[in-house]
Amino acid sequence: MKSLISQVKTKDELHRHATAHSSFSVVAFYSDKSARSKKAISLLEGIVKEQSQDVLVLVDVSKVSDIHPEYGVTSVPTLITLKDGHLVKKLEGLQSEQTYRVLMSNAPRKLADGTEAPPLRIVLYSTPTCHHCTTVKNHLKKKGVPFREVDISRSEGAAKELTRRTGQTGVPQTDINGTFVLGADIAKINRLIGVN
Predict the structure, then answer these.
(1) Cis omega before residue 77 (within 30°)?
(2) Residue-wise pLDDT tens digits, 62-74
(3) Residue range of the domain that includes 139
(4) pTM of the predicted model as reported, rounded to 2 decimal places
């Protein structure tokens, strides 16, 4: 079995590693002299070993000085995601285990046949005065899950399309890769996005 966690020491090594494993890479910048870095790496290693399909690249900035400036990394720990070698997301500072899980869950997932599953596509249909909409929105933000919000009170066309697709007029309605969740059903949303 190939190693899921790799330590890199040069830019070239990082680029080779990223292209050899997939078009999506998770890179953790840390220092072995920082307690917060050590905690972040411990959390990330646990997640990678548990999920057994993600690959984590580690860069110790106290030993490697030419990689982090390229990605605008000025503090540790910092976690970045790269797609086809380009920066997609950057998380600075020690994050919760759940935030790291969400970030790792946004990495391309493999289906049973070995092909890549589509990335999560989440659309929250809401109105500004809806308390349950705010609950769902805050939950997705807390989990670090990217989503697009559509305010149906401002778009009659969006409201009609939502009713046509689901047969429902109430909000919130959360479209997760084509599966709709009606209301603030956090447990169902968590199942669909792959978090606890």
Answers:
(1) yes
(2) 999 889 998 899 9
(3) 122-193
(4) 0.58
